Amino acid sequence: MLTVPLYQRIYIQDVLKKFPKFIVKDFVKSVKDSRFPKYFDASFDQNQFDRYMKEFYQYRGNLLTGGICIKEYVDLKKYENHTNEVRVFYFDQNIISVCQNSDQPENAPMPPVELIQKYQFLDSRFYTIDYAELKDGSWIIIETGDGSVSGIPPKQDLEEFYKSLCRIIQKRKDVLR
Known about the structure:
This protein is α+β, with helices and mostly antiparallel strands. Helix content is 27%, strand content 28%. The protein has 4 helices and 9 strands.
């Protein structure tokens, strides 16, 4: 991933030397449900890219956060036309929830348990990791985020999510007594 300060001009040819296809987002969100391209590649020239960046700033508006992130675009496996992405919430080194995150069918594969468990000990109290299945069936991390600003997946059972969080908080209180 590359990061660039807000409003600094990004030279597409420089980015293409690192990533043959790439996406643009701010430190928190990308632009979705618009005519903004889902990725950029060598078919875009600098003038087109500059115009799209201007649109990016307009789309994000007051929600624009931090700086610009440029990430390599990868081809993800799809099931019924939905990518296979899974969001995992972690709190105090515990896994709170593992939930599909892109309206894929419920029978789509989940990431390996070992992969999910491997990242539960990061130096953060509350965070998310989004895992995605590549076209070849392997899994990658496509994003990590602060758990307090990460969206709840559409299929998430909210009651179970908050109960899991409460159980961990209660365990911590019991240990501190």
